């Protein structure tokens, strides 16, 4: 899997500060590829509060089942992630593999298996041989020390061409707290989170139910607002851990006024990570922000935005640097949401190409083409009906996407 | 637009019998391309009964608006179709173009404009200059004589690589009646009919309301059961005309028992035409029949079948001749319909690759790969929940699809 680095990859990585109460280790176990780190172990020195959001697939992976079952406990001592095998659609063997994996970690760290969270990403349908973790997990637990966030992000990659990591700080009741996150995902990425994994850690002292409320809120404008191919994975997992190492009294209510800055930082961090996923879409050459305004509701705006962002014809037009706004009209029309053809207006960047249901008489093809040549293309549709609005992010559909996915298993 | 002929194109065309009461003519007007027939005029000697089904797009073309407005009249004297320009999202100019086109035909043939049906297919958003039809329509009306169905099918092509025509006969109350049809469509094709045009003519004596009931019924298992890219057009139009030239008393009720064979022939004809559209999907190299059984209802089965048929990851796997059933699981899971991961079974051709929620222990990769090498690939999913079933048809997603659509306007 040596795909060309996405041209949308970051030029540099942020300096990721350490977060108190958590240690990392990674290893190359050879789950699918030799000589490539494919296991990440995160250990929490004390029980961390944990929140999670998972795929809405009716066929979730065994790891998703495992996390869902343990989430009500509200505390985490460890996270074990592997790439190369999704442990999805693996029946009873899959459930056994999660139980065995968690047992290895529990024994190595002295916690309960229910405090071990798991995620797996990679090929679906191949049984995951959890025995491969035996010995490895024990060694990683001993080695785990510094937090190399970019190395951690690299260990969970599949068809990603670059690791994804981001950081924020926020004031929480007079103390500065830190929020770090990593993510992976490049294909089978759609709202409801597709083969998207993201792990977020903060040193803020926040109780699990509050973390859960915050996480459920921010996924709507981040991980659930990106799409690469409209294909929802069996394995999508976002986990947010709070170690409390920053000190201070624990926040026990989601409406605590001290949460204002933290909530904003979390929304900002998750949006950045989600955008990196879209920028690393399989075969992507261009990043597209689809903004819909003037819809009857925000939910309607989002459905229309996703209809545009998921349209193969819109995405191939972007790949071809073609300001083909007719296809945007098509995608608005097919969304099944309230729309009035004769009120539609469409912009590529600042160039209004259509207005009041027809081509903008002042529209300059040259100016529109100039916008299409950029790496990042803002596409705006105003429906002229109400106040509903939404933003979603996607990438173009290129021949490389087909090449990558026509030959994935071989 | 000289795309390579689809490898799934028919080797020969059927001998299309003439249908009494209808005459054709075609012309090359240069709407978009020079020296290519792009206008089809069908004339009915006497008023024909007419039924229609159109796109569900919220942004329909001016021609769709025109037909919808005139359909309640129930009679047609002419059909004018152009390729190269969809006359969609053209605002007031679009409506004026349809009125002018219909007036030319009405004046040339001595009928009312409301008896003229129109369809346009091609680029969206470019005003259609109906003045180009002036003189041409009059000449075509004079020339219209023999029925060259394949030539008619060719005149309505856009990115199609071959014309699509089919024929059936049926017994209707002791008389043999004939049903002929043509279709076009290769991209922007999805249920709700996408850039799909199909025109059907029979000499059976059937009243318009009965025709409408029959047509609305058969579209569900034909034109609304194919998808190429999930993109629904602004312009989808299926029209069914009945000249009555076969003689006999007119059928006035949809539950008339004499209709049995005709209904079956119409279903069969429309399914064949729809399948030709899927076989000419832009860049298609393989034809896929997706069959879902054991769903909670037929409607649920169809939604799951479409989720599979629209999945870029399933379609690229087919292009790569990869029996990647994990992606089929993914597509079942994302459909949002009732499904139990641990009851799923999946077949490629006769090869069962997964059963009871995991890889079939007897599954032979070699046998599955053998199936994937075929031109036509049957893919079956049994959900093990109920009696609901559905079949839909699609094609693979290839680099050529991206090439064709990344460069459509240029």
Task: Give an account of the 3D structure.
2 copies of one chain form a homodimer. Chain A is α+β, with helices and mostly antiparallel strands and 410 residues long. Chain A folds into 2 domains: 22-279, L-amino peptidase D-ALA esterase/amidase (4-Layer Sandwich), CATH 3.60.70.12; 287-405, Roll (Ubiquitin-like (UB roll)). In chain A, 29% of the residues lie in helices and 26% in strands. Chain A contains 11 helices and 14 strands. In chain A, the strands form 2 sheets. In chain A, strands 1, 2, 3, 4, 5, 6, 7 and 8 form an 8-stranded mixed beta sheet that branches. A 6-stranded mixed beta sheet of chain A has the order 12-11-10-13-9-14. In chain A, helix 2 (91-109) links the parallel strand 3 and strand 4. In chain A, helix 1 (62-70) packs across helix 2 (91-109), helix 2 packs parallel to helix 3 (136-143) and helix 7 crosses helix 9 (325-334). The longest helix of chain A has 20 residues, at 260-279. Chain A starts with 21 loop residues before the first strand and ends in a 5-residue tail after the last helix. Mean pLDDT of chain A is 91; it is low at 190-194. At the A-B interface, helix 2, helix 8, helix 9, strand 12 and helix 11 of A face helix 2, helix 8, helix 9, strand 12 and helix 11 of B.
Structural domains of chain A: how many: 2
Oligomer: homodimer
**Which structural class best describes the helix and strand composition of chain A?**
alpha+beta
CATH class descriptor of the largest domain in chain A: Alpha Beta
Alpha-carbon distance between the two ends of chain A: 10 Å
Largest interface: A-B, 74 and 74 residues
Q: How big a fraction of the residues of chain A is strand?
A: 25-35%
Task: Please estimate the helix content of chain A.
Answer: 25-40%
Pattern of helices and strands of chain A: EEHEHEHHEEEHEHEHHHEEEHEEH
Outline the low-pLDDT stretches of chain A: 190-194
Radius of gyration of chain A: 22 Å
CATH topology of the largest domain in chain A: L-amino peptidase D-ALA esterase/amidase
- Average pLDDT rating of chain A: 91
Secondary-structure arrangement, i.e. CATH architecture of the largest domain in chain A: 4-Layer Sandwich
Number of helices of chain A: 11
CATH fourth-tier homologous superfamily of the largest domain in chain A? L-amino peptidase D-ALA esterase/amidase
Reported for the largest beta sheet of chain A, the result is:
8 strands, mixed
- Count the beta strands of chain A: 14
The dominant shape of chain A is globular
């Amino acid at each position: 899997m040596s795909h060309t680095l996405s041209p949308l990859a970051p030029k540099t990585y942020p300096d990721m500060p350490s977060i108190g109460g958590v240690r990392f280790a990674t290893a190359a176990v050879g789950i699918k590829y030799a000589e490539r780190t494919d296991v990440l172990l995160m250990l929490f020195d004390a029980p961390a509060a944990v929140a999670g959001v998972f795929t809405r697939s009716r066929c979730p992976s065994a790891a998703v089942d495992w996390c869902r079952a343990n989430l009500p406990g509200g505390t985490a001592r460890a996270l074990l992630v592997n790439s190369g095998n999704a442990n999805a659609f693996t029946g009873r063997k899959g459930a056994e593999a999660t139980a065995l994996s968690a047992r290895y970690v529990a024994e190595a760290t002295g916690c309960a298996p229910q405090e071990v969270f798991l995620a797996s990403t990679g090929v679906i349908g191949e049984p995951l041989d959890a025995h491969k973790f035996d010995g490895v997990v024990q060694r990683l637990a001993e080695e785990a020390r510094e937090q190399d966030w970019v190395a951690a992000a690299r260990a969970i990659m599949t068809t990603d061409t670059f690791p994804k990591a981001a950081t924020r700080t926020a004031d929480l009741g007079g103390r500065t707290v830190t929020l770090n996150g990593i993510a992976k995902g490049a294909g089978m990425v759609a709202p409801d989170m597709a083969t998207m994994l993201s792990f977020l850690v903060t040193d803020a002292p926040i109780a699990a139910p509050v973390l859960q409320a915050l996480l459920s809120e921010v996924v709507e404008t981040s991980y659930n607002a990106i799409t690469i191919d409209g294909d929802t994975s069996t394995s999508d997992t976002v986990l947010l851990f709070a170690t409390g190492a920053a000190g201070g009294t624990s926040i026990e209510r989601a409406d605590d006024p001290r949460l204002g800055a933290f909530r904003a930082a979390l929304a900002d961090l998750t949006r950045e990570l989600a955008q990196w996923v879209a920028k690393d879409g399989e075969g992507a050459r261009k990043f597209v922000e689809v903004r819909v305004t003037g819809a009857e509701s925000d939910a309607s705006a989002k459905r229309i935005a996703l209809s545009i962002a998921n349209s193969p014809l819109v995405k191939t037009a972007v790949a071809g640097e073609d300001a083909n706004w007719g296809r945007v009209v098509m995608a608005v029309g097919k969304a099944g949401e309230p729309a009035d053809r004769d009120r539609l207006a469409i912009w590529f960047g600042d160039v209004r190409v259509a207005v009041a249901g027809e081509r903008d008489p002042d529209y300059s093809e040259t100016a529109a083409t100039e916008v299409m040549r950029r790496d990042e293309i803002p596409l705006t549709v105003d429906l002229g009906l109400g106040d509903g609005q939404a933003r979603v992010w996607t990438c173009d559909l290129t021949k490389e996407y087909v090449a990558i996915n026509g030959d994935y298993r071989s």
